[in-house]
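Quick one: sequence plus copper (II) ion SMILES, need structure tokens.
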Amino acid sequence: MLDRRRLLAIGAGAAVAGGTAAVVAARGTAEPVAGKTPPGHGHGGGHGLAKNARMSPVAAATPFAVRMPVPPVLAPVRRTAEADEYEISVKNADVNVLPGMTTAAITFNGQFVAPTIRARSGRPVKIRYTNRLDHGATVHVHGAHVSADNDGYPMDLIAPGASRTFTYPNSQPGATLWYHDHTHHWEAEHVYKGMHGFYLIDGPDEYGLNLPSGAYDVPILIRDAHFDDKGGLILDVERPEARSTFLANGKPQPYFPVARRKYRFRLLNASIHRIFELDLGGAEMVQIGSDGGLLPEPVKVTKLTLAPGERAEVVVDFAKHALGSKLTLSEPSGPVVRFDVEREAVDPSRVPARLRPLPPLPSPVRTREFKLAVAPSMMAYAINDLEWDPNRVDAVIKEGTSEIWRIYNADTVDSPFGGIDHNFHVHLVQFRVLDRDGKPPAPGEEGWKDTVLVRPGESVRIQATFKGSPGKYVYHCHLQEHSVAGMMGQLEITP
Ligand SMILES: [Cu+2]
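Reply:
Sure thing.
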């Protein structure tokens, strides 16, 4: 058994070395395994919440008491021949999450679920971020194909009071992307406290398909949360399972009135740790998209696994349900959002049998191995037994080449801590899942992905083609409580 106190001490040192957090909260993680304790680690918990919070009473919201909002689409401040330009402030704000209570949040533009950016393929977006926090921060558009200096590199922070403009070329197909904090050591806390929102790209690959659109195309950011009795967010890194209040678009287990017709829901799991196992009470959902946009063809599902950072787009046809029906999107430990079928509507939309063809894969030039596991010698979460070091490049990749990466989760059920899930995210590219333990990917994983769940003991092979300008990009576990503790590496694109 590893010594947890030593691990915490090391974690505290790492955070100080990172120059970020003054106070470090300790943590254990994840799925409790009988008789075993997974590792704790340093964490950029600037508010020292964990200890006191554990004793606090917890506010519980009544399910289905509030209506689910749809995050507003942000209007550009300017449209030029070159780009749509936006301005976003990163700032602390008091927001309303639980009815009648105020929650101290860290936000984009003061909104607990950030305003949605709606971009178009081929039309660049420039966002000027102003950091109004008292410490550095940066922003990453997850799933975007961007140059390195616009990617929100975790060590290249926007100083307090400063602004920086990032340019997103949107040179990729339509997709449900999202933007979130990526400040090393702070990313878990910042995202947990509200630095999360949608970045949607509309692409010509979708034009003419006649999928549900407009008011019937609804992004839903789902996540878990743990509140104290005054509505404050508790980040107790030792008890992620205490985050038992599920939020949909920033409201606790809300309801959402729908018409008897098809809806397109863009589901995003923005939790920092929880893997959602979703179902709609046995009702059919038709999955049409994943991280990188449309699947080759629709896939009928009744269950959907969504790990942190992943997206799934589903079409639900409420015409199959009577007026007055209530369908609840749930996971085994509770409801997430309830859809109340309240009115009739005409429905010219459809889900075609073919959505978007997948191009053939180019020939890979090489294969790399990535072992995801706790490194007991360092008491850190690690990749190939190394924790994150910004001064080390882990993979030098020639621009334009295609590689196969085998990602292996060595935190198996019989490891010292029991099985620990990991979720591998690569910046810059959308990849394809080739196989999972040698078996073909599930149909919902056949499209473009940027984040892939790797269960304890599993081995997943992906193939990515690294087109882009030279520079350094990170890859990491998207259980952000693992990335803060070292489970991150970097690749460098060379000419
Ligand atoms: Cu992980």
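The CA atoms of residues 210 and 349 lie 5 Å apart. The chain is about 5% helix and 40% strand.
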